[in-house]
Task: inverse folding
């Protein structure tokens, strides 16, 4: 049977924030290839005539300016309930020895200033994608042959490439690489999934336009680790509503049943009463927290295979948007 064969210079894997800013720099003769059905953490939910963010992301500096997006400085009010130690144990894994950096360590631990884009993150990722003129292909990768420099896709098509830039999860990428035993990969990468819920409703708390309130739940009685409150800027809601995010690390002993319902009782325990709910949804962020491998046995192998890794789980270390912009934009 005749198989379709395509040639490209740079093959960029993942339709992510990092890929879409990487490709604004070069690139002729490139192809952006993404797994069918997978999305960026920045992709939101459609709601009324707009989109709402699945995750509330804040910036440690005004780094988004480099991509041409305006930001505003906001007050980050951090309220720790219980102890830091107990919070840490909720978001760490048994195999973790030192306390590594997380997105959570990048932001203030008292009241402080952080930055937030004027647009929502889901609008930003749409704009970034619209700026890119490269062809895109959505297909599942069956295998990558680094010696032949070919990628075999589900359905039988083959892509010949000169180099790869990958933002897809590093552990997933390795399981596709010829010569790597997939059974050994998972032992080298640890991660903690998160249940992330967004509830839009009215609350019994005053939140100003330029403020975010972050409750860090350092007590065992709470299964969530963070509750984050923001004032909604959705026009249709006439400013009276709040966006309430509840982040729950999914450890083996977490009871996953009806987590969205449990979120409401956790909110009540913190003293947040919610009424007139107009939106409530949850999703599981598989790579909620990445735990850095002590030594990465695969970094040399990836380098030798001509694969450059970018982004949060592509590189397994660029934790925040500002980290990614610094590492990827001026590559
Ligand atoms: C709970 C949480 C809180 C965070 N808070 C902050 C914050 O406050 N500030 C901040 O700057 N950053 C924060 N981050 C990090 C932020 O989400 C990332 O910087 C941002 O998502 C950009 O990452 P990226 O470009 O690497 O990947 P993304 O844009 O998220 O894209 C990931 C790519 O990987 C692919 N992919 C993922 N999983 C699979 C799979 N299983 N199979 C195939 N393909 C897959 C997707 O197709 C997609 O193309 C937080 C992250 C989490 C999880």
Result:
């Amino acid at each position: 049977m005749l198989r379709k064969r395509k040639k490209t210079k740079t093959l960029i894997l993942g339709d992510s924030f990092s890929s879409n800013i990487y490709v604004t720099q070069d690139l002729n003769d490139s192809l952006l290839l993404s797994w069918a059905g997978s999305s960026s953490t920045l992709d939101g939910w459609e709601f009324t005539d707009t989109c709402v963010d699945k995750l509330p992301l804040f910036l440690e500096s005004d780094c988004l300016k480099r991509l041409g997006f305006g930001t505003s400085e906001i007050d980050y009010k951090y309220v720790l309930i219980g102890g830091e130690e107990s919070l840490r144990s909720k978001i760490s894994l048994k195999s973790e020895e030192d306390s590594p950096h997380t997105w959570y360590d990048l932001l203030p631990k008292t009241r402080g200033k952080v930055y937030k884009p004027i647009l929502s993150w889901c609008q930003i990722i749409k704009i970034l994608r619209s700026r890119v003129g490269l062809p895109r292909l959505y297909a599942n990768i069956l295998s990558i042959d680094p010696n032949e420099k070919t990628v075999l896709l589900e359905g039988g098509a083959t892509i010949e490439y000169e180099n790869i830039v990958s933002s897809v999860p590093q552990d997933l990428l390795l399981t596709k690489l010829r010569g790597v035993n997939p059974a050994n990969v998972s032992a080298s990468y640890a991660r903690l999934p998160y249940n992330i819920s967004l509830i839009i409703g009215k609350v019994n708390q005053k939140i100003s336009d330029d403020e975010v309130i972050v409750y860090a739940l350092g007590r065992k009685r709470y299964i969530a680790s963070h509750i984050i409150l923001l004032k909604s800027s959705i026009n249709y809601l006439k400013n009276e509503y709040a966006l309430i995010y509840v982040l729950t690390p999914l450890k083996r002993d977490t009871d996953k049943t009806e987590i969205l319902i449990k979120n409401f009782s956790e909110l009540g325990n913190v003293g947040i009463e919610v009424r007139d709910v107009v939106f409530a949804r949850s999703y599981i962020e598989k790579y909620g927290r990445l735990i850095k491998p002590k030594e990465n046995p695969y970094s040399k192998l990836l380098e030798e295979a001509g694969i450059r890794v970018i982004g949060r789980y592509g590189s397994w270390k660029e934790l925040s948007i500002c980290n990614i912009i610094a590492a990827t934009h001026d590559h």
